[in-house]
From TrEMBL:
Mg(2+) binds at residues 455, 461, 464-465. This is Phenylalanine--tRNA ligase beta subunit. Its EC number is 6.1.1.20. The gene is pheT. Residues 39-149 form the TRNA-binding domain. Transmembrane segments: none annotated. It comes from Vreelandella subterranea.
Length: 793
């Protein structure tokens, strides 16, 4: 909200400069966004009177005028404004004066006629942007020769306050003055509002069909109104300094009362109303043409002001075009109402609108303000536009009106929250000056919340009120007392960040997919999966909770492939859901998917596609992070989503922990995928388990290596050979490596050749050949007896 500092100081004027007032308002919780002068800088401009006006002899659109500028002699000036006329009081820039943008006034000849000054328009003085309005006409009582800045009180500042939504009570000069008065312990001098007695008996009936949305509605008929009257310059200026453009006297007055008191109002052309006012909800199919010419199709949840013919206005938002006041209006119906904030909240935005009225009503307008506002507006209308006022008609639902809230403020709680003991009289004084009803009781306060404070409902709100008025800077500064001992960390646990960084280091990008998938996608990959079905899904293709990360990763891969990203390497972490709601398990998992070329495109990179072993290597890099690689095994197994013979179940300490494999051809065909993809999914809780690192001294003695090649049945997993060999390899076996798998010439059909590299190293001496040969013989005998494997010559 913008407001004039001078206008505020008419209500309350603390002994502070402009910046101090702005700082004080900010520290009270009403943040000041900007402080700007109300007019651009200019000098040498005075009030003058036009004495004569004649047509320019050499230009049809120019006039030659003489003006009295108070200097004691008349001055000749050439003017191009069409509205200049004899007897007008105007702003006149004397020779030597300086207008905005450093425009200096000099003697000049315009089409051969001498001009000694300039009659100014509002735009030339920086008071408005409209350049087509002609010269600025001043009231006839303006004193000739008086400095124009002084006459217009332009040595003023506009203060713009960015109010939080809970402080709708400060969207007026009255509300802001109340705050400033409380902060400075000064009385607020509000203008006297007298009741306007009825001079005629004309009334217009009001009926509340939606009392919960509009508990109170006041209206008044005023006849003989001159809508062609001029809005007083002082009112135009106050509106301008508050960011509102002058339109006509009736609209200007309702806007002025809104700014002054905080009550939005509206005036209808009485002659365009039929039957009586009805406040109701909109009916299906109703439309309304607003004052801005926009036609709106009303929804049933919208509150409207209507008569017998249909809607007249959107309640609390904007009036309708057909019932609005025009130049021909002579009788008006003036309304002031209280609308429930819940009824107005969001309605304007839902229609793409935002008005000053809706801004206030959706934050809450004082329900007791309507009688005061309608009397204030009536008085101003009669003074400016003339006419006669009828009696005020009121429709009110006492049951739907907001009730006064009563809150107990405990002295002990207040002292604890502020870390300071305030005198009881000071607390009472702060609350009373804010308008609260206060009754002290044994160190506590029983507080009645005023009608304009919608934001105060609990004890903590009262504590905040006391704190901000007392001054946050006046509260003690104390460091919080807390025991900040370090939390124990399990060194054997891997963090999720470590696992993510490992995947990123291996060229993967993290995907974040929805926890919901399409039922047909999940059934195609996991036909036996049971997971909850959403009662109100975002869309039909996200209607079941995922039982695996694989469907989401496959969809992410498809999304990338459709956008010419042929090489995809994605991983994801998240929960999977299995079972019905009454027995639902939620398991954190990590999954990954690869497709496309093994290496990024480049002159030195191979063009081969990724396969099962590429992703298996990536997964094994995760398994080794914890230092307990031996706890993990890969066992051949079949999964409905994975290719038979190219899939394995991942085991941790002998228990199932996940899957890895190539997508099943049938799944690919069902989903319309044209490329092979390899995917894994492993439980995060198992992946994060590891061993505590321990130091082991390096041996200074040489390693000894032996290479052994065995033939064994082709369907026998290599892991069984590795496990069998380790049984007899001895305690000094440092490493066992698979370095060749061969099937073909020289190897019997149905068999394969597996070549292992075994490395031994003793920590304190050199191993001799005899010891190594004994170990090799034991290994050969073990694998022959257990697996039927034969040593190749």
């Amino acid at each position: 909200m913008k407001f004039s500092e001078q206008w505020l100081r008419e209500w309350v004027s603390p002994q502070l400069d402009t910046q101090a007032v702005a700082d004080q308002i900010t520290m009270a919780g009403l943040e000041v966004d900007a402080v700007e002068p109300v007019a651009a800088s200019f000098s040498g401009v005075v009030v003058a009177e036009v004495l004569t006006r004649e047509s320019h002899p050499n230009a049809d659109k120019l006039s030659v005028c003489t003006v009295d500028d108070g200097s004691g002699s008349s001055v000749q000036v050439v003017c191009g404004a069409p509205n200049v006329d004899v007897g007008q009081k105007v702003p006149f820039a004397r020779v030597g004066g300086v207008l905005p943008d450093d425009f200096k006034i000099k003697k000049a000849k315009l089409r051969g006629v001498e001009s000694q000054g300039m009659i100014c328009s509002a735009s030339e003085l920086g008071l408005e942007e409209d350049t087509s309005a002609g010269i600025l006409e001043l009231p006839v009582e303006a004193p000739v020769g008086m400095d124009f800045r002084e006459y217009m009180h332009l040595n003023d500042m506009t203060i713009e306050v960015d109010l939080t939504p809970n402080r709708g009570d400060c969207l007026s000069i009255k509300g802001l003055a109340r705050e400033v008065g409380v902060l400075n312990r000064q009385a607020v001098s509000a203008p006297e509002v007298l009741v306007v007695p009825a001079a005629i008996n004309d009334t217009f009936a009001v009926d509340l069909e939606a009392p919960d949305q509009c508990p109170r509605y006041l209206g008044r008929v005023i006849t003989g109104v001159n809508t062609g009257a001029e809005t007083p310059l002082w009112m135009v200026e106050r509106l301008r300094r508050s960011g509102i453009r002058s339109i006509d006297p009736v609209v200007d007055i309702t806007n002025y009362v809104m700014l002054e008191l905080g009550q939005p109002m509206h005036a209808f052309d009485r002659d365009n109303l039929s039957g009586g006012i009805v406040v109701r909800m909109a009916r299906p199919g109703e439309v309304l043409t607003l004052l801005d010419g926009q036609e709106i199709a009303l929804r049933p949840e919208t509150l409207v002001i209507a008569d017998q013919t249909g809607p007249l206005a959107m309640a609390g938002i904007m009036g309708g075009e057909l019932s609005g006041v025009s130049e021909t209006t002579r009788t008006i119906f003036l309304e002031a109402a209280f609308f429930s904030p819940v009824a107005i909240a969001g309605q304007a935005r839902s229609y793409g609108l935002h008005t000053d009225a809706s801004h206030r009503f959706e934050r809450g307008v004082d329900p007791e303000l309507t009688p005061l506002a309608i009397e204030r507006a009536t008085r101003l209308l009669l003074e400016i536009c003339g006419g006669q006022a009828g009696p005020v008609v009121e429709a009110k639902s006492e049951a739907a009106m907001p009730t006064a809230k009563h809150i107990k403020l405990r002295g002990e709680r207040l002292e604890k929250a502020l870390s300071k003991r305030l005198a009881d009289d000071d607390v009472s004084d702060i609350l009373e000056r804010l308008g609260f009803g206060v009754r002290e009781s044994e160190g506590n306060w029983l507080v009645q919340v005023p009608s304009w404070r919608f934001d105060v409902s609990i004890e903590e709100d009262l504590i905040e009120e006391v704190a901000r008025i007392h001054g946050y800077n006046n509260l003690p500064v104390r460091r919080p007392a807390a025991r900040l001992s370090l939390r124990p960390t399990d060194e054997a646990k891997l963090s999720l960040g470590q696992l993510r960084r490992q995947m990123v280091a291996r060229g993967f990008q993290e995907a974040i997919t929805y926890s919901f998938v399409a039922p047909e996608l999940q059934s195609a990959m996991l036909p036996d999966a049971v997971s909850p079905v959403l009662a109100n899904p975002i869309s039909a293709d996200m209607s079941v909770m995922r039982a695996s990360l694989m469907p989401g990763l496959v969809r992410a891969m498809e999304h990338n492939l459709n956008r010419q990203q042929s090489r995809v390497r994605l991983f994801e972490t998240g929960l999977v859901f299995n079972g019905e709601l009454d027995a639902l398990s939620q398991v954190p998992m990590m999954g990954a998917l690869v497709c496309g070329s093994r290496d990024p495109e480049g002159w030195s990179g191979a063009k081969a596609s990724v396969d099962f072993y590429d992703l298996k290597g990536d997964l094994e890099s995760l398994l080794t992070l914890g230092g307990n690689r031996d706890a993990w095994r890969f066992e051949p197994a079949e999964h409905p989503a994975l290719h038979p013979g190219q899939s394995a179940q991942v085991m941790f300490e002998g228990k199932p922990a996940g899957w890895i494999g190539t997508l099943h051809p049938q799944v690919r065909a069902t989903l319309g995928l044209k490329v092979d993809a390899v995917v894994f999914e492993v439980r995060l809780d198992h992946l994060s388990q590891g061993d505590v690192p321990a130091f082991e001294p390096l041996s200074r003695f040489p390693e000894v290596r032996r290479d052994l090649a065995f033939t064994l049945p082709a369907d026998r997993p290599v892991q069984t050979l590795l496990d069998s060999a380790k049984v007899k390899a001895g305690e000094y076996l440092k490493d066992i490596t698979l370095f060749d798998v061969y099937a073909g010439k020289g190897v019997a059909e149905g068999y394969k050749s597996i070549a292992l590299g075994l490395t031994w190293q003793h920590p304190s001496r050199t191993l001799n050949d005899e010891e190594i040969n004994q170990l090799v013989e034991s290994i050969v005998a073990q694998v022959q007896a257990e697996l039927g494997a034969e040593l190749r010559g």
